[in-house]
């Protein structure tokens, strides 16, 4: 059975899990350091969720970011990654379901996320969980240098 927990502290296990998982998510991003994970956990807006089977190793993780803006409380799911050896076992579904429940408990009426079209299994999961594709433009500004 897959259990999801919100991280309350940075441990060696957590740092190692990110070292294994982040390269499976992004070839261009380095895994966060212990100090960066501490910063995330201390921000108040970032909620780091991890999933494991029984008392086993961390199989996946995600970040739920919840923040207030003038029109209400908003939530975003970011950096969802499940270890390649654990895919298809319900880890992603457990992580997303826990994030949706946590977001609702924190007052968010909606939860947004983005997913590349090439991530077909993830996109099927999001639709199955009730996410609806929005008609919007996503823009990114990137500093040079």
UniProtKB/TrEMBL annotation:
Cited PANTHER family: AMINOALKYLPHOSPHONATE N-ACETYLTRANSFERASE-RELATED-RELATED
Gene3D superfamilies, per the entry: 3.40.630.30
Ranges for domain N-acetyltransferase: 5-145
Protein name: Unannotated protein
GO molecular function (one): acyltransferase activity, transferring groups other than amino-acyl groups
Keywords, comma-separated and alphabetical: Acyltransferase, Transferase
InterPro entries referenced in this protein's UniProt entry, alphabetically: Acyl_CoA_acyltransferase, Bact_Acetyltransf, GNAT_dom
Native source species: freshwater metagenome
Classification via Pfam families: Acetyltransf_1
PROSITE patterns named in the record: GNAT (PS51186)
CDD domains attached to this UniProt entry: NAT_SF
